[in-house]
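Retro notes - structure team

What went well: the batch runner handled both jobs without manual restarts.
What didn't: labels got mixed up in the shared folder, which is why I'm recording both outputs here explicitly, each with its sequence directly above its tokens.

Job 1
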Amino acid sequence: MPDDLIDGYDLDDFVTFTKFQDFDILDIHFGEMEAPDEWIDYELGSLIAIRDELMEGDLRALYIVWLAGQRMIEGYGEEEDYEISVPPVPPAFDELTAAQQALSELLQLPQELLVAAARHSKAAAPSTKDDVAAWVKLLPPDRQHEYLVRLAHNEPGLSRILVRELRELNQDKTRATPSTGEHVTYATLLAESKAIKGQLEREKREQERVARQRHLQEIHDHQDNYWHQVDLAVERGTGSGYDEALQLLIELREAADQFKETQEFQERFRSWVPPHLRRPAFVKRLQGRKFTLPEA
């Protein structure tokens, strides 16, 4: 990876980048981050792809780490007496890969902050296809032979080393335009994220409302099937069966209220429930949810 990989990123002590002769180490450390309120099983294997993405020049993961670092610093509530370096928002930040999304979840970045950053991101530039077959011919014969010998010895990472050397030989043809992403301060992103959070919450409530409406419509259109499910659940004579039957009855009642058929539901319920009044545990559940039961 390039020597200046993390230049321009104010990563405090959260990230260190060390180069060695045969490998590089990018150490991301957020040991002081508070654990989430509930236990979460993280699949760290989902982050493996970040290595290849960074080596291909995709800096979205690094920007995610910068956001997490700024959020940690902001949480300390301390005034900084130096100017914080602000990196450009990488292109295609609105289309994070699975690995990058997993990293943002691991670092507990709120969705609204990611959306705020994405709104300042440009579309990814179309990539040019590497003409490896043509480029290999530009290597001196002894260099080609050397690569074949190293391939025979199963040298790790050889493919990436070869492609990198070929690209350097053809850098005038393959060099991409340097990133001109927008530099946006964390304070700006944070302010924008607060408005976005309200918007996302409204959208979520609307989605839930629409989904609920569809569900009630489904119940209304297939009432007989739902009543049959109630019968099967009650007949099991178990606590879980009674709970299932109660939930189905609640949904049938809500669907009736939604479509202004409350009276029809009450009549059907009164004619259905008498054989089940001999089930005290079930009756108690019905009373707890304010179902009107006929007098004994």
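Job 2
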Amino acid sequence: MSLQSQVDELGARLSDLIRRLSECGYVFDRPEAVLPGPDPRAAEVIDRISREVGPVPEALALFWLRVGSVDLSGSHPDWKEPAQCLDQLIVFPASLALYHLEDDEGGHLEYDLPFQIVVAPDELHKANTSGGPPYSVSVPSEGIDPPLNNSSEAETFLEHIDRALRFGGFPGLAGCQDHGWPLDSLKC
């Protein structure tokens, strides 16, 4: 399967999951950010990072261009919150990557190499608890689907999204028995 097909399949699975969550009565914290589609500036951001720092990993670039961003933060009034973090799936939009590349006036910031494209908060920050460094990918990167930095699992960017989808968008539920979430109906 080509990388583009892989990204498109993940996008279709995300759409299906969001439909399922909505049908179950899940309430998204920011409905406008759930799956808004590609950022209008995605191509411009990818080009700028590629020129100034190095090539944006192809898997991330395709995700930004074809799927966009996702934020599954929210809750359900009847689902028991587990003792551990949900680690809900979040992928920031492409335009947020510029935040770490430029200052408030659009000037160039100093940064260490490899440059880190922040793609999501870590699982503790997602639970509104002080945590560690955010999930990120390095530029330059290793391969077309780079390792996801700071994840509790050794996985690539796309593997993280796939794993999240296999746990209904909440990979923190893996191995967790103290929840009332209908995972069987949410897994995709």
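One thing worth noting from job 2: The chain has one domain: 3-186.
We'll revisit the folder naming next retro.
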